[in-house]
Amino acid sequence: MHKSISLLILMLLVTALSACGAASPKPQTGGDKSPGASSTPSAETNEAFVKAEELFQKTNCISCHGVDLSGRIGPTTNLQKIGASKTKEQIADQIRNGGGGMPVYKSKLTDDEINLLTEWLFSKK
């Protein structure tokens, strides 16, 4: 029993550490949908949303939230429909101040970048 628990903890630790240190993939181009893109054409072609998706990748958010926003670590990292359950203010506050396992980004991102991510995530309903 002790070996099983130790092995499980080790596997979780290795997964978490490898995900946090993973290099950000290059943004997709061409006709493919970008990671986390909404299914509405306006969101796919909205320049601000494209920039927000690139920022999401550049800041390595996908290491915990996944390429498709479905979440990879923890119980609350699924962002696919976050705009249906959180206000813009709540989303922005979470990005700025972190919490619940999420790091603080107010010193890593500008207010404009936080607002860009907030608008993009709030559109996910």
From TrEMBL:
Bias (Polar residues) ranges: 36-45
- Keyword Metal-binding appears in the UniProt entry: yes
Q: What keywords were assigned to this record?
A: Electron transport, Heme, Iron, Metal-binding, Signal, Transport
| InterPro entries cross-referenced by the UniProt entry | Cyt_c-like_dom (IPR009056), Cyt_c-like_dom_sf (IPR036909), Cyt_c_BACSU-c550-type (IPR012218), Cytochrome_c550/c551-like (IPR051811)
Query: Pfam families from the xrefs?
Result: Cytochrome_CBB3 (PF13442)
Tell me yes or no: is Electron transport among this UniProt entry's keywords: yes
State the signal peptide span. 1-21
Q: Which residues form the Cytochrome c domain?
A: 47-125
Region Disordered: start and end of each range? 23-45
Q: What is this protein called?
A: Cytochrome c551
Give the originating organism: Paenibacillus eucommiae
User: According to the entry, what is the taxonomic lineage of the organism?
Assistant: Bacteria, Bacillati, Bacillota, Bacilli, Bacillales
